[in-house]
Amino acid sequence: MTLAVFIFAITLTLVIFQPRGLQIGTSAILGAIAALVLGVVSFEDVITVTEIVWDATLAFIGIIILSMVLDEIGFFEWCAIKMAKLSKGNGHLMFVYALLLGSFVAALFANDGAALILTPILLAKMKILKLNTKTIVAFLLAGGFMSDAASLPFVFSNLTNIVTANYFYIGFLEYLQNMIVPYIVSTLITIAFLWLVLRNDIPKSVDITLLKNPDEVLKSKTLFLFSWFFLALLLAGYFIGDAYGLPISVFALGGGLLFLAIASYTKNARAWLTIKTAPWQVVWFSIGLYIVVYGLKNAGLTDYLASVLMKLNTQGDFVAIVGTGFIAAFLSAIMNNMPTIMIMDIALADVGNLALVYANIIGCNLGPKMTPFGSLATLLWLHVLSQKGVKISFWQYSKFGIMVTPPILFVVLVALYLF
Questions:
Q1: Contacts for 329 with CB less than 8 Å, ≥ 6 apart
Q2: Domain positions in the chain
């Protein structure tokens, strides 16, 4: 156990702090190699882990490629400006609309897509609107929180969702039916609670005349209109794939590459540049970190967790759901939600209560917001802001996250129990 924990701790430290620019995927692979060489995991374990994460990883790459192309043609910038214009200059309405937009993007383009694509766009628009620093930070903190809080409704909305759905053989439609209400509740309670906490930093009015007309930011109005049809067609494809038991990456990666080809053919995107700049490090991160985590499983951590979860399961669904959700949340906040989801999935395999599987997903999606290193999306979000000159300290973020996460998480878990 000691050696497995040591390798995991070192790997996670390298992933979080990225010394000398060491990329997250490289750190995870180095940890995996160490675990393999030192006998913490076997080659059979590596094959098992690859079978678990390949679909999730390829689906994530596809969603990010699609997001990057849509960003290239002005899709998200159009949405951001349209959102601001709809507020008619009311700062509080703009705050609500910005979070609704964040919820939409997180649901359809995953939490990491929201962090990577939408954050810099919103930041640029807020600077154009000449908002003060406190207001900008308030909008950014709220948007960053929403990127994970709203990554619940579809299997592809979060890497954790895909991994868990595949692990427990949960179909696309079945997953959506169980998570649509928690998603709606999560979006609404997040908006309400964040507004209560941040309302004093939101201006009463904003000069929206400083913004461009939405259509002016589009590279191609025709391709933009087609993209809505394409997204609807892609969503339908997920349901069709579910009926035939096809991997979700077939549509996520296939759809992303197809739209890239269309945009490249119409000269609205550069395929080589998109492929080159896609976050390939996430592939190595997913496989490498899961191999390291599998070492914790071999060392007996999942057996201990399984015994705790089985005891919770005897206390009735309400206690079991809330308890499981908060265990997943706190583990995610401490050691990142990617390893947490796998450890918890393995531990839940013998419990036999599917409601706890969904509670685990909710905990692993919302719980990471208590610390800056709780999720890959937050790490990416902070990195994007840092590149744009916006610094949010560890304590500033953690104080905000610890204050808002537990009550929102509790309400969403209650919604899961009731519906």
A1: 363, 364, 366, 367, 368, 370, 405, 406, 409
A2: 2-418
